[in-house]
User: What shape does this take?
Amino acid sequence: MRSRSILSFAISLLLFSCTQQKETTTIDPGEIRALSNPIFVFNNAFISNEVQQISLEDQAVLLNELGFDGIEHQEVEGLLETEKVFKNHGLNIYADYMKIDIDHEPHYLLAWKEVIPKLKGSNIILWTHIHSEKYQPSDESADEEVVKILVELADFAEPYGVRIAIYPHTGFLAEKSDDSYRLAVRANRSNVGSVFNLCHFLKTEKEENLKSAINRTLPRLFAVSISGLTEAIHNP
Assistant: This one.
């Protein structure tokens, strides 16, 4: 019952804001809101070593049957092929899980400079997970290095309508929702925003801080993840 109550509260606060960019200051969790935002799935299950590979066609058919609007992808390999197949089924790739490593160059796969121009019109979000061995998670002294990379990537992506969002992940440099929001603000680009990840929030923050964290980060929020709630509760 605890996981269900957290999820219900989180959905009422989070889902309506996915991909929004306008400034918002407060939220009334009791207010009924119509959800018009796309709802998509991670592709983790489809690429897991524990299951047989599922074809792109079958993935698209399954997601249509389940009522989803699309899927997430990871890095560049197969991205354009997946986009083509899913479009044929009326689905989109809404986000791509992109690694940035500030300790090493290139900081991200060079292939992105070839692929991003081909994504024009897709409205895809590259949600970046940021890594470093030099800095501890949430270390603000790394911000200058991180922001420099984000700005360079954002300026390259902007003419093609591609957005960048910082994905908070336990143990990574940008670990918390506040890290994601802070870096997005410091990048100061209209196509750079934050991600709220419920699973990793519950791994790094107290449950009672959920509402205040959402209110703080909402002005820059591009996307929300509610996947992994049960895992977060049982493996904090």
